Amino acid sequence: MKTKLCLALVVTVLLALLAVPALAGTSETPMWVSRVRLAHTGRSTSGTDAIVALVRVRDANRRNVAGATVTVRWTVPNAPAFTTTGITSRTGYARLSTWTGSGTYGLSVINVVKPGWQYTPVVTASAPYVTR
């Protein structure tokens, strides 16, 4: 019997701890990634894992940002890394997924874009997911 070990890492960032001097004097509204989550949602008959990523984007007042394009880089088992994009919903979450192999997955947010807004990376927003 195989043993599965699932580890989800949640990255939470408080904007109140961040000074944003780079945005001083601009008319763009700052936005940032407040959470990155990976979850194992199933396994196909061929043995590949279904992995879902949720990336939450908020503004300086901690309100959800809808309609932002989130670009992420997936690190997947036994395959080259690749990028995908998703659009945030009214809840501020972009939902992205992959079915690639079985092993250790990783996700890094590369960029967030919305007209009139400025993406402010406060930390490297990433999350690993491990399954065995």
Detailed description of the structure:
With about 130 residues, the chain is mainly beta. It has a domain at about 30-120: Immunoglobulins (Immunoglobulin-like). Helices cover about 0% and strands about 50% of the residues. Strands 1-9-7-4-5 form a five-stranded antiparallel β-sheet, with no helix packed on it. Strands 6-3-2-8 form a four-stranded mixed β-sheet, with no helix packed on it. The termini are close together.
The shape, in one word, is elongated
Largest sheet, if any? 5 strands, antiparallel
Element-level helix/strand string: EEEEEEEEE
CATH homologous superfamily label of one domain? Immunoglobulins
Alpha carbon gyration radius: 16 Å
Q: Give the strand order, joined by hyphens, for the main sheet.
A: 1-9-7-4-5
**Number of alpha- plus pi-helical segments:** 0
Task: Tell me what the CATH architecture of one domain is.
Answer: Sandwich
CATH topology of one domain: Immunoglobulin-like
Beta-strand level of the residues, as a percent range?
A: over 45%
Provide the low-confidence segments as ranges: 1-24
Please count the beta strands (DSSP E, at least 2 residues each).
9
Question: What class would the helix/strand composition place it in?
Answer: mainly beta
CATH class of one domain: Mainly Beta
Terminal-residue CA separation: 11 Å
